[in-house]
């Protein structure tokens, strides 16, 4: 059996390992082949000199593309340092000329292999891992060694590997972060050292080098709660999806964890825990820390889009509301989940032949995701029915631990208050889920409660009594926290329920076809991963300076129109991973068009014609292929290197 570790090449001791690096990082201390200054240049040298030549090579019709993703890469690394750089390393695929020019002789076995052969070998190694967590660790290791191979392997086996590099297995990896830790990746910011935040962030590049930042404070990870600094892995996982699904260049992203302590007692007691061993900071200190991070990120990387992930209930929405009016930022749990859930609902209503304006929806679990979904669906109802959002909110009922949210419920947040029902109307009623279902007769039931099995047979049968095709979306992750599983939902409703789930499930068979014929129903995964890559891609390419509600609504429509259920009512409500890049292009197109209408686009070269727009988007998406390497000396490259991914519109940007 192979161990992931055995894939890391042995290197002479005097060379430090170079991973995805901060540009004047201590990673480079003791690295004889790479000076700190050179390190700064390498990020830029990873881009080719003349994007327009490349466009000619690709046969592009665009005279100028802001980001180009093909053509030779300039590289000043040689020998073992090059082999240990995941972005440049090609392992056994280095060509004869590259082996000569980059001093690789004697460091590689003689056979020169193709990327396809490497993928074949890597896949065999992957399959030989004993369980999903070991597979996840193998993939992490692969990413640290050779990014192109990692992404190509993932690309070629995405359907099989999605749940290993993302939920649910990534959740397990996060819970075990301090035990599985081998090598750091990402930015660890420390609340006890706020003065260093800007310095720590500044190591990662020049202002134009970073397009996309995912930041978490680790408080509410994927339904598994407070994971402290292990939350860095959710930032990394979301960025992997950003690259594989949205084509964002893997060297132009930054995963960040804001370490504010943790309230997870197990971690606090664990000697191996790697994060700050203190209770979570709250109040002014926490806010100052977030503000310091945001200010530094904006100053250092003014073009970067900031994606908030898995913040705790108290902070997620508050931070989003504070920063949204000032910059392109997005909270995936609030907005991404809202967008994808609305898309699933739209596809479901297409089958049930109902209008959005007429629906009643119950959301079980009125936290970050639940209220985010409620808001997005409320706005869509309001637009469809041409009524105010307040009026539309009357069609939505939120339930949390104590039951239905009413005007007498204690300690409601402002966001929840908008949905609180009159206490007088409910004073003599029970307000648990079953009672609310009986009373409200909803068309849609959403679960974001983390309470497994809460959609009981009784609840589901009650719902199905009143509506022909109930739309039921148990979204809590990971899999074991789902409010119900598809098999039960379909069995309890004679195959009538229109179901999508937060994590992937196998298709379900049952006698629900014409004349009792057995059919297989493929249930869609309703996860924000379907939509956030396209929203991010559209925002980054158009350099949108805000992410507006209209852009988000457009994203939902983009996903819904690609739902297989629109063409076949036994097909999944949402598109699957097999078409994930097409979905991202569609969503990005919709988002850019909406951003144009909103006047928030800053990129000058965005085509206005829809067909051109698709091509323009696709040409700027990064693909996992090896690009030829061209050796340049550090200094020379520093004068001439022009980022192939940079906007060249500004003459000052061209040296
Ligand atoms: N499928 C997807 O794309 C997404 C799924 N999620 C999942 O949704 C779940 C919730 O996530 P967040 O909203 O971020 O967490 P959260 O902690 O903000 O919200 C959970 C809410 O459920 C409530 N709750 C807990 N037990 C309950 C019970 N027995 N009855 C009724 N309500 C109960 C809590 O009081 C809280 O208000 C998690 O499992 C998460 O993984 C979150 C974001 C996206
Ligand atoms: C999917 C996701 O973002 C979550 O479960 O938190
Ligand atoms: Mg999340």
UniProtKB/TrEMBL annotation:
User: What InterPro entries does the annotation carry?
Assistant: Aminoacid_DH-like_N_sf (IPR046346), Malic_enzyme_CS (IPR015884), Malic_N_dom (IPR012301), Malic_N_dom_sf (IPR037062), Malic_NAD-bd (IPR012302), Malic_OxRdtase (IPR001891), NAD(P)-bd_dom_sf (IPR036291)
User: What Gene Ontology molecular function terms does this protein carry?
Assistant: malate dehydrogenase (decarboxylating) (NAD+) activity; metal ion binding; NAD binding
Comp. bias intervals (Polar residues):
41-63
PROSITE patterns, alphabetized: MALIC_ENZYMES
Enzymatic reactions: oxaloacetate + H(+) = pyruvate + CO2; (S)-malate + NAD(+) = pyruvate + CO2 + NADH
Tell me which residues make up the Malic enzyme NAD-binding domain. 334-596
For binding a divalent metal cation, which residues are annotated in this chain's numbering? 309-310, 333
What domain of life is recorded for the organism? Answer: Eukaryota
Q: Which cofactor does it need?
A: Mn(2+); Mg(2+)
Q: Which residues form the Malic enzyme N-terminal domain?
A: 143-324
Residue positions binding (S)-malate: 477, 527
Q: How is the cofactor bound?
A: Divalent metal cations. Prefers magnesium or manganese.
Gene Ontology CC annotation, any one: mitochondrion
Residue ranges of the region described as Disordered:
39-63
**Where do the catalytic residues lie?**
166, 238
Question: In the UniProt record, does the keyword Thylakoid occur?
Answer: no
Kindly state which keywords UniProt assigns to this record, in alphabetical order: Metal-binding, NAD, Oxidoreductase
Q: Which NCBIfam families match?
A: PRK13529.1
Write out the similarity annotation: Belongs to the malic enzymes family.
Q: Which PANTHER family match?
A: MALIC ENZYME-RELATED (PTHR23406), NAD-DEPENDENT MALIC ENZYME, MITOCHONDRIAL (PTHR23406:SF34)
Protein's recorded name = Malic enzyme
**What is the source species?**
Neurospora crassa (strain ATCC 24698 / 74-OR23-1A / CBS 708.71 / DSM 1257 / FGSC 987)
């Amino acid at each position: 059996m192979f161990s992931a570790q055995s894939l890391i090449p042995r290197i002479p001791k005097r060379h430090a390992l170079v991973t995805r690096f901060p540009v004047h990082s201590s990673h480079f201390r003791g690295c004889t082949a790479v000076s700190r200054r050179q390190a700064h240049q390498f990020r830029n040298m990873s881009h080719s000199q003349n994007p327009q030549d490349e466009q000619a090579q690709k046969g592009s019709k665009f005279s100028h593309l802001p980001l180009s993703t093909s053509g030779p890469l300039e590289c000043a690394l040689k020998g073992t340092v090059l082999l240990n750089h995941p972005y440049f390393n090609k392992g056994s695929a280095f060509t004869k000329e590259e082996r000569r020019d980059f001093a690789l002789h004697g460091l590689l076995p003689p056979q020169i292999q193709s990327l396809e052969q490497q993928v074949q070998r890597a896949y065999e190694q992957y399959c030989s891992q004993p369980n999903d967590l070991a597979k996840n660790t193998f993939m992490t290791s692969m990413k640290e060694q050779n990014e192109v191979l990692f992404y190509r392997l993932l690309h070629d086996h995405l359907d099989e590997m999605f749940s290993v590099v993302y939920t649910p297995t990534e959740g397990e990896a996060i819970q075990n972060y301090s035990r599985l830790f081998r090598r750091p990746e990402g930015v660890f910011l420390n609340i006890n050292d706020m003065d260093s935040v800007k310095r720590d962030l500044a190591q990662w590049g020049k202002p134009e080098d970073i397009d996309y930042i995912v930041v978490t404070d680790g408080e509410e990870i994927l339904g598994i709660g407070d994971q402290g600094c292990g939350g860095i892995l959710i930032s990394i996982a979301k960025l992997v999806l950003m690259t594989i699904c949205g084509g964002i260049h893997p060297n132009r992203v930054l995963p960040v964890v804001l370490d504010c302590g943790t309230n997870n007692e197990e971690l606090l007691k664990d000697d191996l825990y790697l994060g700050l061993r203190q209770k979570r900071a709250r109040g002014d200190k926490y806010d100052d820390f977030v503000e310091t991070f945001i200010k530094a990120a904006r100053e250092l990387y003014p073009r970067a889009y900031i994606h908030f992930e898995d913040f705790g209930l108290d902070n997620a929405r508050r931070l989003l509301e504070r920063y949204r009016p000032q910059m392109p930022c997005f909270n995936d749990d609030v907005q991404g989940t809202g967008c994808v859930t609305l898309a699933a609902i739209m596809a479901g209503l297409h089958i049930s032949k109902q209008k959005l304006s007429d629906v009643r929806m119950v959301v079980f679990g009125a936290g970050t995701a639940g209220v985010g979904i409620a808001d997005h669906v409320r706005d869509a109802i309001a637009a469809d029915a041409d009524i105010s959002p307040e009026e539309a909110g009357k069609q939505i009922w939120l339930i949390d631990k104590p039951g239905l949210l009413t005007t007498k419920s204690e300690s409601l947040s402002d966001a929840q208050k908008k949905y609180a029902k009159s206490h007088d109307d409910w004073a003599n009623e029970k307000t648990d889920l079953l009672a609310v279902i009986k009373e409200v007769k909803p068309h849609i039931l959403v679960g974001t409660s983390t309470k497994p099995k809460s959609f009981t047979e009784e609840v589901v049968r009650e719902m199905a009594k009143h509506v022909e095709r109930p739309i039921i979306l148990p979204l809590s992750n990971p899999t074991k926290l789902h409010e119900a599983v598809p098999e039960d939902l379909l069995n309890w409703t004679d195959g009538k329920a229109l179901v999508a789930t937060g994590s992937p499930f196998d298709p379900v068979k049952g006698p629900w076809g014409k004349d009792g014929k057995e059919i297989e129903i493929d249930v869609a995964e309703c996860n924000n991963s379907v939509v956030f890559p396209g929203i991010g891609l559209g925002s980054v390419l158009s350099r949108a300076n805000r992410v507006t509600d209209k852009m988000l609504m457009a994203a939902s429509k983009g996903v819904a129109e690609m739902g297989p259920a629109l063409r076949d009512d036994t097909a999944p409500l949402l598109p699957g991973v097999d078409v994930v890049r097409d979905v991202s292009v569609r969503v990005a197109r919709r988002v850019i068009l909406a951003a144009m209408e909103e006047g928030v686009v800053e990129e000058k070269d965005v085509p206005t014609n829809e067909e051109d727009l698709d091509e323009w988007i696709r040409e700027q998406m990064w693909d996992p292929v090896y690009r030829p390497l061209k050796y340049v000396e550090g200094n020379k490259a520093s004068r001439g290197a022009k980022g192939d991914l940079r906007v060249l519109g500004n003459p000052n940007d061209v040296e």
